[in-house]
Design brief:
By secondary structure, the protein is mainly alpha-helical. It has one domain (13-431). It has 16 helices and four strands. It has a two-stranded antiparallel ribbon with strand order 1-2. A two-stranded antiparallel sheet has the order 3-4. Strand 1 (50-53) and strand 2 (56-59) form a beta hairpin. Helix 2 (36-44) runs parallel beside helix 6 (135-162), helix 7 packs parallel to helix 10 (238-252) and helix 8 (204-213) packs antiparallel against helix 15 (372-392). The longest helix has 41 residues, at 400-440. It starts with 12 loop residues before the first helix and ends in a 16-residue tail after the last helix. The model is unreliable at 444-448 and 451-456 (pLDDT under 50). Keywords: Membrane, Transmembrane, Transmembrane helix. It comes from Sneathiella marina. Residues 434-445 have a biased composition (Polar residues). Residues 434-456 are annotated as: Disordered.
């Protein structure tokens, strides 16, 4: 579904100045701080801020991503990068998405739209792969987001009190805060209140990981956590609250890390058992979730139901619209289903394989970790991905949330790759040292001389 502000220039002078400054900073800053400008654009500028040239949208976030890619090419910061399974899956998925979406709509605009989507998603992912390679890289960026949560909490609180969005001056977000069931749903610079809430909710497992890692002062993590919780509560949405619950659950499962395969199979068997004994399908449980009041859980259940019933419509290259499936189903609030709607069964499968491959490489990294600190950080990465997967059952990502999702996903893969490589290197060095030590030692005993038979 095309966003209403597509193909329309929406640019504020302050926004233009900020994107120019961030693009220059992206190119000029040291590698350690190269993606800080992108984080600023994600957190502080509405994703609708864009310049349209010859019907091609250049959102401000996309401009900074292009600047970062130019930097990587000219500075050759891609050296040392090795392709892994998630990299292959995302590239194949994006390329297939371009062809499938183009065939589905049958015009050049559809191809251009998907190429832009690939630049936003895959571009952010590979920037994460390149610029977040170590725990120190991640710590630096999480600290920046944590400090940014303080002024953002103030801004969201002001919106809650006044009912007016301060970021509306930039354009791309409504001036007056939306109200549902008597509650203000604050969104700040984000494209939707749920996107704002989920963004800050998925940061919390990172805070938990660094709490255990002890590389960030705990008093700061407490302050950051309070601000993040304050922001997501101001969004008055059920999905962010559930994201916090799933994040806490995932982090608590650390104690069962040695038996996680049994836990996963156990959960699967429980779901199958529920599916067999319940009158409705097991995914009907989604319809019963309503934390904030006014939640559309039944809509999300019905979407899954109709998605299965209409398999013959979308399996090849997707379907142009789901509005005819049932009332209100033009709003595809499920990321997994959205992938299928935009690219068919192959796109759906590739996206699942992409997610699975990241879980797998993070799991290998956890097993290879030589310190509890590294192990906790990777567990945090897996917990964040788990929260995203649970959120996908209730919402599909768009706007700056899409960039944030792929950026830190790429960083999670690189963290696991680095930890695995370091573990292998250390193991080889230990083996080499052991061989050198044993090779230098001389035999400490001689063969005893033969015993002569005196009787002879």
């Amino acid at each position: 579904m095309l966003i209403s502000w597509a193909n329309e220039t929406t640019a504020h002078p302050v926004g233009i100045a900020l994107v120019a400054l961030c693009a220059i900073a992206t190119i000029m800053l040291r590698r350690n701080y190269a993606i800080i400008p992108l984080l600023i654009m994600i957190m502080a500028i509405p994703s609708a801020q864009r310049i349209v040239i010859a019907t091609i949208d250049f959102s401000f976030i996309r401009i900074v991503i292009i600047a970062a890619i130019i930097r990587v090419m000219f500075r050759r910061e891609y050296l040392g990068f090795t392709m892994k399974a998630p990299d292959v899956y995302i590239l194949v998925s994006m390329i297939w998405g371009i062809f499938a979406y183009g065939i589905l709509y049958g015009n050049v605009g559809a191809f251009v739209f998907r190429i832009g989507y690939m630049l936003d998603a895959a571009g952010a992912y590979f920037l994460g792969r390149i610029f977040i390679r170590t725990v120190a890289d991640l710590r630096r960026n999480i600290l920046f987001i944590g400090f940014a949560s303080i002024p953002m909490f103030i801004v969201f609180s002001v919106e809650r009190v006044t009912g007016r969005n301060l970021f509306a001056e930039f354009g791309g977000v409504p001036k007056y805060t939306a109200i549902r069931d008597g509650r203000l749903r604050c969104q700040g610079p984000f494209s939707h209140p749920i996107m704002a809430g989920v963004f800050w909710a998925v940061i919390l497992p990172w805070f938990g990981a660094f709490w255990m890692n002890k590389q960030i002062p705990r008093i700061l993590l407490i302050i950051f956590g309070i601000c993040c919780l304050g922001i997501l509560l101001n969004t008055a949405s059920s999905t962010p609250v559930m994201s916090v619950f799933f994040g806490c659950l995932a982090m608590a499962m650390y104690v069962f890390r040695s038996v996680m395969s049994y836990v996963r199979w156990g959960i699967l068997l429980i779901l199958l058992a529920l599916h067999m004994v319940m009158k409705a399908p097991v995914w009907h449980l989604i319809s019963r979730i309503d934390i904030s009041g006014g939640s559309t859980g039944w809509h999300r259940y019905n979407l899954i139901e109709k998605f299965i019933d209409n398999f013959n419509e979308w399996w090849l290259v997707g379907v142009r619209s789901t509005a005819h499936w049932d009332y209100g189903l033009q709003d595809v609030t499920n990321q997994f289903i959205l992938e299928a709607v935009r690219g068919g069964l192959l796109s759906f499968v590739l996206f699942i394989l992409f997610i699975y491959s990241i879980f797998k490489i993070i799991g290998r990294g956890i097993k290879a970790s030589e310190t509890n600190g590294d192990r906790w950080v990777l567990w945090g990465a897996g917990s964040v991905l788990f929260v995203h997967c649970m959120s996908f059952l209730a919402v599909s990502y768009f706007g700056q949330m899409l960039n944030a999702f792929y950026l830190f996903l790429g960083g999670s893969v690189s963290l696991a790759v680095t930890i695995i490589a370091n573990a292998r290197k250390n193991a080889m060095e230990r083996a080499r040292n052991l061989n050198e030590t044993t090779g230098d030692q001389q035999p400490t005993h001689q063969l005893a001389p033969p015993i002569r038979n005196r009787s002879s």
